[in-house]
Amino acid sequence: MLKFINSASWALILAIFVYVVLTPKALVAGRTISDIVNKSIIKTIKVDNDEIIDCYDMFKQPSLNHPSLHNHTIQMRPSTYPKNIKVDNPGTLQVTQTWHKYGTCPHGTIPIRRNVEKHYYSTLLRKQRRPKIIHNKKSNILQPNGIRDNHEYAIIKVPGSFIGAQAKINLWNPTVETMIEMSVSQIWVMAGDDSDLNTIEAGWAVDPTNFGDYQTRFFIMWTSDAYQHSCINLRCPGFVQTSPDIAFGCNFTEVSTFNGDQKDATFSIHKDQNSGNWWVQLQDISLGYYPSSIFTLLSKTSDRVEFGGEIYNGRYNGRHTTTQMGNGHFPSEGGLGISSYFSHVQVINENNEAKDPEDVKTYISNPDCYDLKVDKKHTNGYGFYYGGSGYNDNCQ
Ligand SMILES: *[C@@H]1O[C@H](CO)[C@@H](O)[C@H](O)[C@H]1NC(C)=O
Ligand SMILES: *[C@@H]1O[C@H](CO)[C@@H](O)[C@H](O)[C@H]1NC(C)=O
Ligand SMILES: *[C@@H]1O[C@H](CO)[C@@H](O)[C@H](O)[C@H]1NC(C)=O
User: Fold this and answer.
1) Active site residue: 201, 254, 306, 333, which one?
2) Cα radius of gyration rounded to whole Å, the chain
3) Which domains does the chain carry?
4) pLDDT per residue over 44-54, tens digit each?
5) Is 333 a catalytic residue?
6) What is the pTM of this model?
């Protein structure tokens, strides 16, 4: 994920905040849904003022407005699954979302979480700023116009021609210091460099710019032009959803506790060998897919896969942010329950076989701020511990 906001943007945020809070609700742009969109909404489920789920007719879902999908035939389920997937169980998490208590989306519809008004500042902000991005091949850090990059990573990189990746990711609710920072833990399926970088991403995020709060939320993301255009969840056309049960952008109903109950969930991305579509799965639920045709390089295979954590360091108080990665604890402090983990990390090779990753390289942008340690014991498949506190004596 990416975020490019400098301190000058605070003025804009403030202005929009004032606008949103002080403007009568009826005048706030985007609050009502246009008639055309309305026609494809079959049912609306209201959780509270911050969470509204619209059940869209699957065959009129907004994603089908993508230019390459005008005559798209929806694939209802994957026709191939990777072989040799390591599953003891898909994760300790029951896949329930808060809105399930208030209703279900009928067969043939898909749930889309509505952007409620308090999120509009971020939409506006994003429209204001879309800097050009350079993908630095050596460091693999994305830099806006050569400005010192404020994204920090603790990740593993697995080079190779893959058609998928999966991992069980420990769920936490890290502290994010300011509303324009973020902390994410995710999988990246990638191809290309520089301006032709293609990615498919899935994981969890605390990302107030996108979601308007500090909860741990499920997200997917893609780009086919090195983030000049990138899209989270179903905010723009691309991802074709088929599941009536899971909405992107919802929170996880349970997260882990330090030294206590550990919660995790299996996230997976795999390319259907017949259709070429990239399916995304949470636990054992197939959610839908990114059609092969919306990509350039990823219409074929990836050339690497990455797993781990990323934060955005806003440096707003003249020092490193206290935004945490993972659960805010370093792998050096301890393993299970102490620091956060990825387990059952697997890549899917071109023969559609799931394998433990090989030739793994770690990339840790600043180990004094956030670190990563591969778990050599391999009891839960290939895995690693990662995370950190951000600002401390050695991370200024
Ligand atoms: C759609 O339009 C109908 C009729 O105008 C209205 O009653 C309903 O509330 C609208 N639904 C949404 C989700 O805006
Ligand atoms: C749309 O798809 C149908 C069925 O595959 C095909 O017959 C038709 O020619 C297509 N139309 C366009 C405009 O591509
Ligand atoms: C998820 O959101 C609901 C309300 O929308 C809230 O009641 C619940 O506490 C949240 N779960 C977590 C783990 O924060």
Assistant:
1) 201
2) 20
3) 30-387 (2.60.120.1270)
4) 999 987 899 99
5) no
6) 0.84
